[in-house]
Amino acid sequence: MTIVKAPGGESYFEAVRDYIYENNSSVFSLNYRNTGSSRENFRIVHMVESLTTVLPLEIVSSFPNYYKIADVVALHPDASVIINGNFNYQSWGTVGIVSWALGKTYDFEKPFDKCWGNVFEGGVKKGISTLHPSPSDHGFFRQGASAPLNLEFGKGNLLAAENGMGGMKFEYAKSVTTTMIGRSSEKNRERIVFTVTTLNSESVADLVNNLIASRIDLLPGGNPGEYEFFSLDGGSSIALAAIDGSGNLAVVKKAGRHHPGNLNTINNYIRFYSTKPR
Fold first, then answer.
1. In this structure, is residue 5 part of a structural domain?
2. Would 250 be classed as within a structural domain?
3. Residue 241 pLDDT > 70, yes or no?
4. What is the secondary structure of 89-132 as a DSSP string?
5. Is position 79 within any domain?
6. CA distance linking residue 277 with residue 29, whole number of Å
């Protein structure tokens, strides 16, 4: 029997892989508590890469409304994991607070119509896409339509893909709520794809350092200190749904924009479809 302890050692992702195979599971979830913290701070959800399909989801043109995480779960109940995607913004900007993306203000009563980075589904670039003005500061993921999926993490603007999403950041010391996506080193027997979601707001630096110590590869074409490990939209945008003990997809975490009555909703998510080993 494999017992998985907290991230930090080089055998961590190997132990995760063994646990998934021994228990014939599609995912393995672990709550993480920062050193010295009195509460659980993050949920890590792990999947074996060779058994997993990673797909973006743009929800502006595909559906008549902008959907919150509970709505996306209802639309895609066969997914193993769903998280919020890259950084959203409004292309107009009229009232509200200053938008980090454009230096404008945004309207609390309207959803976001654009995101920083191109989004491709089935080879089609979606209407929410925008080339990031600082591509050297951002990364992307993409993969093919069927297994073996050849999942790729890269640097810069994503210009073409069967399925993929750009506009991802490297905020390894973020001190507010965050969502992240990464994968373990190719030195492992099998690579593990994983997500990180804030449960209770504290700095993610402690967890990031331990996950990197557990062997995550440097990003091809990236700067020193940039890994195959990306930050996604945070704050009020974060959301996580994952398979529970009964095998049902259930919402684990939803921040402000996913609560009823909040019109300031987001426009993209990432879905993971992971099969059992046998």
1. no
2. yes
3. yes
4. E-SS--SSSB-TTTSSB--TTS---EESB-EEETTEE-TT-B--
5. yes
6. 16
